[in-house]
Design goal:
The complex is a heterotrimer of chains A (486), B (320) and C (147). Chain A is of the alpha+beta class and 486 residues long. Chain A has a domain of 178 residues: Orthogonal Bundle (Cytochrome-c3 Hydrogenase, chain B), CATH 1.10.645. Chain A is built from 17 helices and 16 strands. A four-stranded mixed beta sheet of chain A has the order 8-7-6-11. Chain C has 147 residues and is an alpha/beta fold. Chain C has one domain. In chain C, strand 3, helix 3 and strand 4 form a beta-alpha-beta unit. The chains are: A alpha+beta (486), B alpha/beta (320), C alpha/beta (147). At the A-B interface, strand 3, helix 1, helix 4, helix 7 and strand 9 of A face helix 1, helix 2, helix 6, strand 6 and helix 10 of B.
């Protein structure tokens, strides 16, 4: 066996991770592992807490997407107490949620994943970041990115109390509404966001699509996996981030499942490996075949490209145009090029901005009736939303006083855990050739996980500890048997 | 003259503190003009080997957020302490233990059982668990060791200053950074936020009667909080009396009660016990049975009074 | 200290006006009770901050006694009502920490109740012997030290 190369820590994502690459004696990649070394334990320590407090505790799974957890939790509380939000409350939730989608997707494109394209994967480490992006695209665009996020986040803070770790969600509604003055102010921000969303796609076109090298990278086999896709759609099979049914299509685009929140355990199961704290979800009815692509493997992907793969069309006009163009360039639907997640992300931002304006134009948005009080006894509930990084599931069980007795959380990046591991290994095989392994090569490997916009804090909300295990290896070092004692 | 260098690092963290720094928005461009950021894993590509190559003192200040849970985090914070003259515990987790600190309300065994065995969606008949060291077909992989307890930063290294909050608010961050750049930091060990309690600054304080009594505890799940009245007076548990001010009362203005993320003022050793003392004595009861009845309407004292501060409490954690 | 000759340590917060005097009476009456209680004299049972109780337990006490005047007899009129109101919440909190309810006790002991004082100390001592030492600090330290 040859060298071992460690990328530690991986950077420009949310959370902790490392990548181990094992080279053979010729300097070629034998295996690569994407490991997540952090855990916190939400599924245990939320037990004993009042259910409504989970809408304020679970956002601490992730400070980049706390709104996603807050919203999934709030919907779960609705289900738990069997109470529907008022019409105004539902619209307020979707409005805040749409604003969040726009600003979070821009955060990813400009601060996290985008620098790889805008500055270039071979640029020195000190330039592969937002500061390098600013230097490349200019202060005017940088100023717009900052302004659009500032305005949308100020709007979210006004609506939800806090922007980092919102508080306004309650079973049956929200704690606070908006005034007409708020609405007028927000409308201006939404319009600016829409203009910038169009501009972001134009930037992507200029910087990526008109650069042959990048287009080759995007379309390359090294960055492609033919997997199932999952996402939430409304009754017209258009993506809806706040609510809808979960839809799964196979690698060729045929629908294989469509289900509501209460059925998720019929379709999704999680596989455990000893070398990472993250679990690896897969489609139960297809089965776990390991870290492989194809229709026989239960591995599936979530998040922007997958969401667009499962949709028939977008619900708003400008996003629909962009959707059609993307699939045309990628050679049809479904598309499996991992780097295209960055593109799909910007199309989603465009949709969310259009949706914000629709909601702000709705008279009901400034209404007073923001809460239906629960009357039923709670026992169990499931709440599902699309987080920017993928499908997010909150599932709570309580006693009759609404105190949590058990919970299950499957978070966005969790669904992508196997695909990320596969993408990293495939990219390593394609991009890393020893014995001289350059920083640029290693960054190309990291570029394989960035399109997923992983949120590893989310993915590792759980906790584990090692009891006594004996691994029995043959003379070649292969694992042939494991003996455990708990 | 070269710009001073600063660093940011995260332990058992959610990334919200990173977002709080990005939320400085235009002010961040000013910060970037004044300093060089030498480490910030969320946004910049500097790796561990870069940190190991720093000369002691080369990076003047490091802001560390997150609680300490793994051997890897412990190594990193000790390395950063060695290299940087000033260490600032940034956010509730580093300051008090934070939400991850709630893990101290249960045991490690219970935690892994619920995730890897008892979950309705986990398929794990062989009862596989993540391991410290694994060999997969001859490849050796490691994961860090987990502490059985969650610790705040100053349980592991000496900390010079604390920026409280979950996350810290932009105003306090800017004040702290300005103080650093102007060399105007207070005496070491200070929490960089006002010494008043939240009630003193609360927009609802005028609504409080002179004598506050609690007839019963109410929950926001099943009732509607009045948007103008003091939560505690209305019976909704609000940690304002035991919490330091400085946040701008964001939750209150969101029409939800305070959950204590700034921690207590300097005078209080244990936020949860102190809050119990205050709120307990307000119960409208003069007979033991009535006291017990009222107390029973408060669902979760440990998780509510110590929501952010369990590792910093006197008892620290459940032991069995 | 072995299991058999474990002598519990009880910290007793006794109010000056009633309970401390009652404890003195137990002494002058030569009533026998185990030497397990360490007294801390406070002006009123309402002065007992729950912080004192958890500090005592964390610092080595196996049990804590809070003793005050009977309701209605408080030297400061209302002080003991505060102790009464805090107590059930404190017990619920300690239960969540996994601390057995026998370890913390609230009693009303008047200046003339020397015999009650002695009885309470005897009872608590027996109960704590059966439960065993709390050893909070040592057990806590073992968790942070253990990797």
């Amino acid at each position: 066996m040859g060298q071992k190369i460690t990328i530690d820590p991986i950077t420009r994502l949310e959370g902790h991770g490392k990548i181990e690459i094992f080279l053979d004696d010729q300097g070629e990649v034998e295996r690569a592992f994407f490991q997540v070394p952090e855990l916190r334990g939400f599924e245990a320590f939320c037990v004993g807490r009042p259910a409504e407090e989970l809408a304020r505790i679970t956002p601490r799974i992730c400070g980049v997407c706390p709104t996603a957890h807050h919203m999934a939790s709030t919907k779960c509380l609705d289900d738990l107490y069997q109470v529907k939000p008022t019409s105004t409350a539902r619209k307020l939730r979707e409005l805040a949620y749409s604003a969040f989608f726009v600003e979070d997707h821009f955060l990813h494109f400009f601060y996290l994943g985008g620098p790889d394209f805008v500055v270039g994967p071979d640029a020195p480490a000190g330039e592969r970041n937002i500061l390098g992006v600013i230097a490349k695209v200019g202060l005017e665009i940088a100023g717009k990115v900052i302004r659009v996020r500032r305005e949308l986040r100020a709007m979210m803070q006004t609506m939800m109390g806090k922007v980092i770790h919102p508080v306004f969600g309650l079973p049956g509604g929200v704690s606070k509404g908006i005034t007409k003055e708020n609405r007028d102010e927000f409308k201006k921000s939404a319009e600016f966001a829409l203009e910038f969303a169009k501009e972001a796609l134009a930037i992507f076109d200029k910087v990526v699509l008109q650069n042959e090298r990048y287009v080759d990278l995007v379309l390359s086999e090294a960055f492609t996996h033919h997997t199932y896709s999952m996402g939430t759609v409304d009754e017209n099979n258009c993506p809806n981030f706040y609510d809808g049914c979960l839809r799964v299509v196979d690698p060729d685009g045929a629908e294989v499942a469509k289900f509501g929140p209460h059925e998720y355990t019929d379709y999704i199961a999680e596989h455990v490996e000893p070398w990472s704290f993250i679990t690896f979800p897969y489609l139960k009815k297809v089965g776990w075949q390991g870290f492989v692509d194809g229709p026989e493997s239960g591995v599936y992907r979530v998040a922007p490209l997958s969401r667009l793969n499962v949709a028939d069309r977008m619900a708003t006009p400008l996003a629909q145009e962009a959707f059609e163009k993307m699939f045309q360039v990628l050679g049809g639907k479904p598309a499996h090029q991992t780097l295209a997640f960055h593109w799909a992300r910007l199309i989603e931002a465009l949709y969310a901005a259009e949706r914000m304006i629709e909601l702000l134009d709705d008279e009901e948005i400034t209404g007073d009736d923001i809460r239906n009080l629960p009357t039923k006894t709670p026992s169990e509930g499931v709440g599902i939303v699309e987080a920017p990084r993928g499908t997010l599931i909150h599932h709570y069980k309580t006693d009759k006083n609404g105190i949590i007795t058990g919970l299950n959380l499957i978070v966005a990046t969790n669904h992508n855990a196997a695909p990320i591991a596969m993408s990293v290994e495939k990219a390593a095989r394609g991009m890393v050739h020893g014995p001289e392994v350059t920083e640029g090569m290693l960054n190309l490997v990291e570029m394989a996980f960035r399109p997923y916009d992983p949120c590893l804090a989310c993915a590792t909300h759980a906790l584990g500890k090692a009891p006594l295990v004996a691994h029995i290896h043959d003379h070649a070092g292969n694992l042939i048997r494991t003996v455990k004692r708990d | 003259m070269a710009k001073p260098k600063v660093a940011f690092y995260w332990c058992a963290s959610c990334g919200g503190c990173e977002e709080a720094v990005v939320d400085l928005n235009e002010a961040i461009l000013g910060v970037v003009e004044a300093v060089d950021i030498a480490l910030w894993p969320v946004a910049l590509d500097f790796k561990k080997k870069h940190v190991e190559s720093w000369e002691p003192g080369e990076v003047a200040v490091v802001f560390i957020n997150g609680a300490v849970r793994t051997s890897e985090q412990e190594e990193w914070v000790k390395l950063l302490r060695e290299k940087c003259p000033v260490v600032i515990a940034f956010g509730s987790c580093a300051h008090l233990g934070g939400i991850p600190g709630l893990s101290n309300s249960t045991t490690r065994e219970e935690s892994f059982k619920r995730k890897y065995f008892d979950s309705p969606s986990v398929d794990n008949a062989e009862r596989v668990l993540p391991q410290r060291k694994t060999r997969v077909n001859g490849y050796e992989l490691e994961l860090p060791e987990f502490s059985a307890t969650v610790r705040k930063l100053d349980d592991v290294i000496e900390v010079d200053y604390y920026l409280p909050g979950c996350p810290p608010v932009p105003k306090l961050i800017v004040e702290a950074v300005t103080a650093i750049l102007e060399g105007k930091l207070p005496a070491k060990g200070a929490v960089l936020a006002p010494e008043k309690c939240l009630c003193d600054e609360c927009p609802r304080k005028e609504s409080k009667p002179e004598k506050v009594t609690i007839e019963r505890f109410r929950r926001v799940a099943t009732e509607k909080p009045d948007p103008e009245k003091c939560f505690l007076v209305e019976g909704f548990v609000c940690l304002g009396p035991a919490t330091r001010s400085g946040c701008g009362e964001l939750c209150i203005r969101g029409n939800m009660p305070c959950r204590g993320c700034f921690g207590p003022t300097a005078e209080t050793r244990d936020q949860g016990a102190k809050f119990l003392s205050a709120v307990g004595s307000l119960l409208a009861a003069d007979q033991e049975e009535k006291c017990a009845e009222l107390a029973a309407t408060l669902a979760d004292p440990l998780g509510t009074f110590y929501r952010f501060s369990l590792p910093s409490s006197i008892l620290k954690q459940r032991l069995s | 200290m072995t299991e058999q000759n474990f002598e519990p340590v009880i910290v007793g917060f006794l109010c000056q006006w009633c309970s401390y005097t009652g404890a003195d009476l137990a002494g002058t009456s030569r009533l026998e009770y185990p030497p397990t209680l360490r007294t801390v004299r406070v002006m009123c049972s309402g002065r007992v901050d729950p912080t004192f109780v958890v500090t005592a337990l964390a610092d080595g006490a196996d049990g804590v006694l809070i003793a005050g005047c009977h309701p209605g007899d408080c030297h400061y009129s209302e002080g003991n009502y505060r102790a009464m109101r805090r107590y059930p919440l404190l017990m619920k909190l300690l239960d969540q920490f996994g601390i057995e309810k026998e370890r913390v006790r609230l009693e009303w002991i008047s200046a003339s109740e020397g015999d009650k004082f002695a009885r309470v100390v005897r009872e608590m001592t027996e109960q704590l012997k059966a439960l065993g030492p709390l050893n909070w600090q040592k057990r806590s330290a073992a968790l942070s030290g253990a990797a």
